[in-house]
């Protein structure tokens, strides 16, 4: 039975070579997030049970490893904030389907070069490598995001890059032919060469580009508003053998969305919905409105328990340096574009917003810290 090989290396050619060696043997790989503290790293290895570890000192066998099925390419740990990590099992066929569909949509040609600069332990970073390898597209891999290094790579020939919104703000986007933007919600105004994608680990990277599904991908909205996705790039299963895919091949994403003028619009995760006084409030909607305030540098919105309202809308704000900010002012500003019930009932001024490695707001961490 093929093995699962954990790779604990920084981004670069040695990482890519380790992936190639494992795949040439018929094994699957599991990238390890090198920023994990020791306890979290141990929990990851215990949960997903690789049989081998590749690090700077070479290859090492691990006790208690579980095999994978022939054809499995990667086991990617989910970035969930609670519970043990789930290992999303993606096959070579799924990764190849994703690569082909992406190349067709982006019109990737012989003059193109991919740049990988996002964390390789997340699908947004790792899938850049698979897209390049599957289509024989030249590839540059950086150890992580560094604005100067990213711009230097572009000047050295990189034409395609996958970024998150926070990284986009730190570079000159005109240096690239196409920027694929994933992770957190895209900015309201973005360059013409920047494509907002929708996808998740279970879809093998983005499967909807600027609201339009890639070739071979079907999207529909269930009666309860959940976004369902079907296509050849979906996961085979989780590492424990369970699957979020139903008998008709639809992946249940746990996101809520709508189809507007033929394009998918995602409102947010079902668990993020705030119900205040019987009214539904999506955090993204409030964040977009508050972000336009001249004194707001960053903002995150979540709901916390409230004895009167059920939940109240709370805004965590990083203010622009030296700018005063008061709740009444923020509520008045929100009321200019939103119904009154969506305006935050509480303001928390913070120095930074907790985010995942791909730039998504860690709303659960905000709510838990508030309740502590």
How are strands sequenced across the largest beta sheet? Answer: 8-7-9-10-11-12-13
- Based on Cα principal axes, name the global outline: globular
- The residue-averaged pLDDT reads 92
Helix content: 10-25%
Poorly predicted runs of 5 or more residues? none
How is the main sheet built?
Answer: 7 strands, mixed
The number of helical segments is 9
Give the radius of gyration.
Answer: 21 Å
Name the CATH homologous superfamily of the largest domain: ANL, N-terminal domain
N- to C-terminal separation? 47 Å
Number of strands: 23
CATH class of the largest domain: Alpha Beta
Give the percentage of residues in beta strands. Answer: 25-35%
The figure for the number of domains is 2
Helix/strand-derived class? alpha/beta
CATH-derived architecture of the largest domain: 3-Layer(aba) Sandwich
Which fold name is given in CATH as the topology of the largest domain?
Rossmann fold
């Amino acid at each position: 039975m093929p093995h699962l090989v954990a790779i604990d290396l920084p981004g670069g050619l040695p990482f890519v070579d380790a992936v190639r060696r494992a795949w040439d043997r018929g094994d699957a790989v599991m990238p390890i997030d090198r920023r994990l503290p020791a306890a979290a790293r141990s929990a990851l290895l215990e949960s997903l049970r690789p049989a081998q570890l590749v690090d700077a000192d070479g290859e090492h066998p691990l006790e208690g490893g579980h095999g994978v099925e022939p054809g499995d390419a990667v086991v990617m740990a989910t970035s969930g904030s609670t519970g043990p990590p789930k290992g999303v099992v993606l096959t070579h066929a799924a990764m190849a389907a994703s690569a082909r569909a992406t190349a067709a949509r982006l019109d990737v040609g012989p003059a193109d070069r991919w740049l990988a600069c996002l964390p390789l332990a997340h699908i947004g970073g790792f899938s850049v490598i698979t897209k390049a390898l599957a289509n024989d597209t030249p590839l540059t891999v950086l150890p992580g995001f560094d604005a100067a290094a990213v711009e230097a790579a572009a000047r050295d020939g990189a034409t395609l890059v996958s970024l998150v919104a926070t990284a986009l703000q730190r570079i000159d986007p005109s240096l690239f032919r196409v920027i694929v933007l994933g992770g957190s919600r895209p900015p309201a105004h973005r360059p013409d060469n920047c494509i907002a994608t929708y996808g998740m680990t279970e879809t093998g990277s983005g499967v909807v580009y600027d609201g339009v599904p890639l070739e071979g991908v079907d999207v529909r909205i269930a009666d309860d508003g959940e976004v369902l996705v079907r296509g050849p790039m979906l996961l085979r299963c989780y590492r424990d053998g369970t699957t979020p895919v139903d008998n008709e091949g639809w992946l249940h994403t746990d996101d809520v969305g709508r189809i507007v003028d033929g394009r998918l619009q995602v409102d947010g995760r079902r668990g993020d919905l705030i119900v205040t006084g019987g009214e539904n409030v999506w955090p993204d909607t409030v964040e977009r409105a508050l972000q336009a305030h001249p004194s707001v540098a960053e903002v995150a919105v979540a709901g916390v328990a409230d004895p009167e309202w059920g939940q109240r809308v709370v805004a965590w704000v990083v203010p622009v340096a030296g700018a005063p900010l008061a709740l009444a002012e923020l509520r008045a500003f929100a009321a200019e574009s939103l119904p009154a019930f969506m305006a935050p009932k509480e303001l928390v001024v913070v120095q930074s917003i907790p985010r995942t490695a791909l730039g998504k707001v860690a709303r659960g961490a905000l709510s838990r810290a508030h309740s502590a």
